[in-house]
Amino acid sequence: IDPSLDLEDEIQRLKRARNAVILAHYYQDGEIQDLADFIGDSLQLAQEAKKTTADVILFAGVHFMAETAKILNPERIVVVPDMKAGCSLADGCPVDRYRAWRQKYPDAVGITYINCSAEVKAESDYICTSSNAEKIVRAIPEDKEILFAPDKNLGRYLVEKTGRPMRLWQGSCIVHETFSMKKIVGLMERHPDAKLIAHPECEESLLRLAQFIGSTTALLKFTISDPSAKYIVATESGVVHQMRKASPHKEFIEAPPEGNCACNECPFMRLNTMEKVYLALRDLEPRLEMSEELRTRARIPIERMLALS
Ligand code: 13P
Ligand code: SF4
């Protein structure tokens, strides 16, 4: 790339030339969020992808999100900045192992978190996101056993919230498991006026202390409507960008990880850069493609989720 290029201008120009829309998750770098036409949590991004009439969707997020966009709106060209932007939850649930698990409990209903591959979606009965998971669990008849995959932390939280026992796949998010309880408790002692807010992918010990738990959008909305002036935010740090923009007078403290790493940043989400967004729009590559057979099967449990949302 010519270093004299103004990437922001070029991306805006290409967006118009390609009739493209940029959908971004809150865990993207701030500069990518600022370029996006739409920012949302996993559910909102899926809904937006389904209804867009743009010719091209540039999905600034991770692979499973772009895949969901393609499943819901196959007529569009879906491009991503980096095809290697995966997810530890999706990686920890390979389809052959998931299928074998389902076969052990043939009468059970399979609810799967949207953070999984299209292949696993195709084997699931319902997809859910962190914002609608409780609703989906409650929609399953009481006499049915539920298999919940792949996030054990969200699963355990849902069991507690709904009182509904479920068999849990033992996966987790590498980002939401890095927070240091010791440091968080220390912060809470030093800032007794701050509220701890957390994403349900966090571990049980952290969720027990949290005063509010929700999806990225729910966390953002809470900080806007809640009267407090200070928050300790236990999720990927990207979302704090929008919190600060929406409430510049409030203070947001990122929940600290163990050690001195930046591991409250998702290494997959952060593979996306302005340069790669520019190249993806310029070249319309890399593109998300999948077989029609897989797409059709994976769409069914996602549509069931959307109907219940
Ligand atoms: P939500 O934005 O749906 O809360 O999801 C968080 C996440 O981990 C996405 O990978
Ligand atoms: Fe996956 Fe965790 Fe990254 Fe979200 S933050 S994409 S769940 S690894």
UniProtKB/TrEMBL annotation:
Cleavable signal peptide: none
Enzyme class: transferase
UniProt pathway annotation: Cofactor biosynthesis; NAD(+) biosynthesis; quinolinate from iminoaspartate: step 1/1
Protein name: Quinolinate synthase
EC number: 2.5.1.72
Co-factor binding comment: Binds 1 [4Fe-4S] cluster per subunit.
Function: Catalyzes the condensation of iminoaspartate with dihydroxyacetone phosphate to form quinolinate.
Transmembrane segments: none
Pfam families listed in its UniProt record: NadA
Protein family (similarity comment): Belongs to the quinolinate synthase family. Type 2 subfamily.
Catalytic activity annotation: iminosuccinate + dihydroxyacetone phosphate = quinolinate + phosphate + 2 H2O + H(+)
InterPro entries for the chain: NadA, NadA_sf, Quinolinate_synth_type2
Single GO cellular component term: cytosol
Residues reported in the UniProt entry to bind [4Fe-4S] cluster: 87, 173, 266
Annotated residues for binding of iminosuccinate: 25, 42, 113-115, 130, 199-201, 216
Cofactor(s) demanded: [4Fe-4S] cluster
Top-rank taxon, per record: Bacteria
